[in-house]
Write the structure tokens for this entry.
Amino acid sequence: MKVLSLINMKGGVAKTTLAINIADCLVRRHESRVLIIDVDPQFNATQCLMDPESYVAHLKDGKDTILTVFDRTKRPVASAVAQSSKLEPKQLENITVVEIKKNLHLLPGNLELYRLEMAPGDGRENRLKNYLQKIDSLYDFVVIDTPPTPSVWMTSALIASDYYLIPVRPDPISLTGIDLLRSIIEEKKENFDLEITCAGLVLTVAEQNTVVFSNAKRNLESDAYWRKFLFKSTLPKRTRIAQGQLDQIHILDGDNPESKAAIASITTELLNRVS
């Protein structure tokens, strides 16, 4: 099982779009068993994979989310006939995921991660890795959608991952942030003794016939460090991609041949880099 985190500290770079569509392409085109894990408290990946009614019902029924992995405190259980007791946290191997379709599963995100981040607790950084070790035989790939800010959730994703992939918009402001991101990841690698590897950098929301895109691509191709990580394939800017996601429509479900070819090429290039 290979674990891949999509990571960038800037929003609006199509990180979630890339995560769910790579996962979808791995299932459809490469016959892989894939689990998507949403560790972003904003749970955008979850919203792109579950309709609002289903997600609300999921929460009301007390079903598992990423919170089940991270919140390992005992819960008080009231009783009218006996002393109050505390419910033990669910065993990690017994966590139930959502089947989006055959071979594509989701561990949904949860807004409660914001609350949990403020609560005391030790060892949270390792809990996602511990969970994945329990289900290692069930999947070929795990794709983790991370929050766009440094946090315990980003750290936990890095600790649990074999690889990370950086989506970045081809504009000057976005490009300035990738060196900072690199330094943060290198610091995490040193502090936690990680062996995580950069799988690459993908230009997203790309308008290839513009000066901005050409300049960004040329700058990365000439950069001594980043040029070896730059994907040949790019994800084009398409308004209908974003609109379709909210209706749980993936790129391969759409009618745009350029977008379909792009996500297929990105996925194939990713496989070549992590094989």
